[in-house]
Amino acid sequence: MIKVLVVEDMHVVRAGLVALLNDEFGIEVVSQAADATEALRAAAQTDPEVALVDIDLPGMDGLLLARELRGRAPGCRVVMLTAMDRPGYIRRAWEAGAAGYLLKSVSPSELARAVRTVTAGVRVVEPRELADAAGAATPLTAREAEVLRLAADGAGARAIAGELFLSVGTVRNRLSAATAKLGARTLVDAVRLAERQGWI
Fold it and tell me: What is the pTM of this model?
């Protein structure tokens, strides 16, 4: 039996996923969680082989959870399950150590096949055309993406500087560089473009 952990904050969706997977031959949901804290505790207690994780979780998001699971439960393969079909998110999922990336629109048979496939050590993306779209890397450095992400949350240069222990000038330079690299006219345009691509 392939032991699965399901991590999804919406109860109805989580219950549906659990029921679907438990109906599949050779797959058993051994634990479920509504957030990252519960997921890490459940993974430690049940030692799942696959974790099906929603990207958009309260508190620690699914991408950060994937990184944590990779460190704490190295035998567990993480499959991201999301409504976000942006190439940048797929790249970020790979960087976080995920083994699969599925849209919530996949069929039950595709979901079960993905669980079996990642257990066999093969990476999965559904729909497959998303894998091709993910080929273009972000033009932003990790630092530029970080300041742009904070700007997207409404933080000004001074607040970002305080959060990252940088000078205000350094923050402004990084924001300016990110805006230029994205070919945007303003910082607001840069944030919108980066969010649309899934780069922040």
Answer: 0.68
